[in-house]
Design goal:
six-stranded antiparallel β-sheet, Yope Regulator, Chain: A, 25% helix, 109 residues, 3 helices, globular, single chain, alpha+beta
Length: 109
């Protein structure tokens, strides 16, 4: 089941106090970026974030869920009403996220 644009809009409003948040629609779901790094997404109207030590420390009893078949588990963030918590979670996760992959230029022969 694809995620609703309304859920994305609500979540982006909750993340409004964090600079450099972006989203991209992909196959009916939404990938979320912080300072150009992927930190999570919205899958079936669930807010999931990558598993990090910061996430484990801030959400010790957090459930892991699979965003889609064949994907790695992610943390389900249920405390989406608390803007301060969301800001702390995302900003603390940043240093643990994989580096930004640079796109290669395609050479046409």
């Amino acid at each position: 089941m694809p995620s609703d644009k309304e859920y994305l809009d609500f979540l982006l409003d909750q993340l409004n106090g964090i600079d450099d948040i972006a989203s991209r629609k992909m196959m009916g779901e939404y990938i979320l970026y912080y300072r150009e790094k992927v930190f999570g997404g919205i899958y079936d109207n669930r807010f999931l974030v990558k598993i990090t030590e910061a996430g484990k420390n801030l959400m010790p009893d957090c459930r892991k869920e699979i965003p889609y078949e064949g994907a790695k588990p992610m943390f389900l963030v249920e405390e989406i009403e608390n803007r301060d918590f969301l800001k702390e979670l995302i900003t603390k996760m940043y240093d643990e996220l994989p580096d930004i992959k640079k796109k290669r230029k395609r050479v046409v022969k």
